[in-house]
Design brief:
There is one protein chain. The protein is flat. The protein has helices at 10-24, 26-33, 39-65. By secondary structure, it is mainly alpha-helical. The chain contains three helices and no strands. Helix content is 75%, strand content 0%. The N and C termini lie far apart (40 Å).
Length: 67
Amino acid sequence: MYVSVRDNNVDQALKALKKKMQREGIWREMKRRRSYEKPSEVRVRKKAEAVSRARKLERKRLQVEGF
């Protein structure tokens, strides 16, 4: 990941980096990997994520079709 620093403004570059990392989901991934996750918890989490994605796609599809 690359962020350019303009006019020696490191704070602004750091803010941009954090925003990019959050958009990419890196913060969530780092938080999740801090501790061990049991295989059963992995299955539950992945299933919940899949359900969430499916619901989101369905909402978008209904919005586009106008129902």
